[in-house]
Each structure stands twice: as structure tokens, then as C-alpha cells.
Amino acid sequence: MNSYTPSLAEVEIRLAKLERQNRRWKHLGLLFLLIAGSGFLLAQAPRKPPGAAPAPATRTASYDTLVVHRLELRDKAGKLRGLWTVTHDDPLLALLDAAGKSRVLLGVSAAGPKLWLIDAAEKPRAALGVTTEGPGLSLTDPGGQRRATLAVLPEGPGLGFGDTTGQLRATLAVLPEGPGLALRDSAGKSRAALSLTPEGSGLVLVDAAEKPRAVLGVGAAGAGVARSGEPAWCAGSLSRRKLTLKLRVREGER
């Protein structure tokens, strides 16, 4: 039976890379939130005194080219509702609600384009981006912890789920060899994996030291079970090594 493990491990590694890229994007978004929330931007336009009459309608003009460093969109009350600017040589478009809070951010950096959707507490809750690895969507809870990540990688699509601490706990991927599911404990250690390939299916149970302890496999030659220390899960058939899913993510790739 072909080994399914390396491909699934690569998907988890690439999902971890997307997580790190999302964190870098999040820092850029938070930087803009600080700028948009300061008096620097609001001071760029005079405020109307209370009770002032609405400004008269102005005539429109048409230009072939307009060159600016920042464009501001304000409502009838003079509140900033939209901003198009460049931050650290990266273009950024922001939309604000009536309370002056940033709710939508759209930007492009060296890593690729990114779209943030932000809640009323100005916490990013959804982010959609495209990097050199492929497109990805991440969803966070009210506490800012990433709870779900969907990505389409060169090897295939992958879906990851995190717990309340942001720890990756489950990964589902569909690769050229077939689908696979990996489960992790609260410490982030791989404890169980299920795979399906054209040659058959396999289930691996792993202990706290991330050592395979039990393997169940079904292939063309039949079904078999192996425990830790046994040389093969099915006599005269496929070796247990062929079914073992090594789900450890390399150090530094988390």
C-alpha cells in the first residue's frame, strides 16, 4: 500500500505556514486600525459646528488622471466612512461604520491580496487571502483565536479546526492519494489518523509520545490489526510501516 503519511503531513505544514502569514496580515490590519482610530485622519477635514446647515451640492468634475496619496470618503455629517491609502508601500482600502469603526479592510502586500471582515469590537473575524501557496480562508472567534482555516494547496484542499486556545486540533485533506483525517490532543500532538487510498484504508492510533501503538488496515490482500512492536499487521501482506501516518509537524513549522 502506498504511504499516505508524508502528503498529509505536508498539508499540515502548509496550513501552519498560512497561519503565520495570516498573523503577519493581522498585524498590518491592526496597524491601520490604530491609524484610522487616531485624530490624525479626522483632523484632515474641518468639523461643522452643531446645527450648521448642510453643505450645498457641488458640481462634479471629470479628470483623465488624479494622483493622490490618500482618498477619504465622508458622510453628510463629516464622519470618515472610507479611506484609500498606502501603508508601508502597500495599498489599503478601509470602510468604516457610522461609529467610525473599521469593518472592512482590503489590501495587497508582497504576500498577496487579503480581505478582512471585522466585527463591531474591531476584531478581525474573517480573512480571505491568496498567497504563493494558494487561496485561504480563516475564521476567528470573539477572543481572536483562529478556529477554522480552509486552504487549497498545490497538493489539494485542506481544512483545519482549532480549539479555544488557537491550537490546531483536526485536519481534513483531500490529496492525490485520497482523503485523510488527522486528530491532535490539547498539546498539539498527533493522536489519531484515518486515510483512504486506492489500495485500501488505514487507521492509526498514537500515544502521547507520538508513537504509533495500533494500526488497522484493509487492503486488497485482506484486513489486519497490528499493535506496537509487531513486525506486520497482516502476515504475507502489506507492512505496518506502509500504513503508519507520521503526522508530526517539523520543529519551527507550527
SSE blueprint:
Elements: H1 5-37, H2 39-42, E1 70-74, E2 80-87, E3 90-96, E4 102-109, E5 112-118, E6 124-131, E7 134-140, E8 146-153, E9 156-162, E10 168-175, E11 178-184, E12 190-197, E13 200-206, E14 212-219, E15 222-227, H3 240-243
Task: Please explain how this structure is put together.
- With 254 residues, the protein is an alpha+beta fold.
- The chain has one domain (5-40, 70-243): Outer Surface Protein A, domain 3 (Alpha-Beta Complex).
- The chain contains 3 helices and 15 strands.
- The protein has a 15-stranded antiparallel β-sheet, with helices on one face.
Features:
16% helix, Outer Surface Protein A, domain 3, disordered N terminus, alpha+beta, 254 residues, 15 strands, disordered C terminus
**Strand line-up in the sheet with most strands:** 1-2-3-4-5-6-7-8-9-10-11-12-13-14-15
Helix content: 10-25%
CATH architecture label name = Alpha-Beta Complex
Give the number of domains.
1
CATH domain fold name: Outer Surface Protein A, domain 3
Give the averaged pLDDT, no decimals. Answer: 75
In one word, what is the shape?
elongated
Number of helices: 3
Quick recap:
The chain has one domain (5-40, 70-243): Outer Surface Protein A, domain 3 (Alpha-Beta Complex).
